[in-house]
Amino acid sequence: MDGFQIYDERFRALLRPGSQLVQLATGGTWTEGPVYFHEDDSILWSDIPGNRLLRYSERDGLSEYLKPSHFHNGHYRDLQGRLIACSHGKRCVERLEPDGTWTTLADKYLGKLLNSPNDVVVKSDGTIWFTDPPYGLIQPNEGYGGEQEQDGCYVYRLETETGELDAVITDMVKPNGLAFSPDERILYVSETGASHDKTVPSEIRAYDVVDGRRCTNGRTFALIEPGLPDGFRLDMHGYLFTSAGDSVQVYDPNGVWLGKILVPETVSNLTFGGPDKSRLYITATTSLYAIELATQGIQTP
To answer: Which stretches does DSSP call E strand in 133-194?
Structure first.
């Protein structure tokens, strides 16, 4: 099939008869962090070097939503539908309130500034989990610079009611994308340390979530090539859809590689959306793409 590479027949069942990748918008520099709004069937995403957020809807087309964005990267929505953002520039995780103001939710751990929060998910109990590699400090045009104060790059769990922040994964080099399994018993995290150290495996790791608070038993879920596994999301089957250098790659819960959705630019992030959560939005280098699938994403709301 044109536009796809199929390694397992289960991949075919994810495609509709007319499934085809469509470029919705372009003009970014390095796009990341797509997040869907069902209220008006729109998508927001980051153009990190452009220091702005972009918006697209079929009704309104492409527009600039926020500038400066303080180098936002990943986004998610909390249980109340509010936008949660990782800000490289502010070195924080912040929340957009209904009145248009931003509330800083976390910017320090053990009294030291965070590195540059990168990607974020919200668990069903309302806690916020995010990664904190140093890209906003070390990548040109992806932050305001500064010195790294943390001893490493960790994955954190934030209790929004109390502000309690815990480092739940500390054994990775540059943790990046993250997402829970459908039952939230596994947290998947991508390792992108190979961006600056080629000896680091380009992999997605899996961790068991204990009592909804701790992560144990870290192991390799899948090795990704070509490129890096930046961001990813899961569908109703527990299949993991991840970015890669040439495509969106799809894996089953056991790490079996099912197939590829080929993309003409290097993929960074993706998210499910559309009225029934069956439209996969893909940010890839300069552009936003979408494809209609025969499955549904699990993120809420």
So the answer is: 155-158, 165-169, 175-180, 186-191
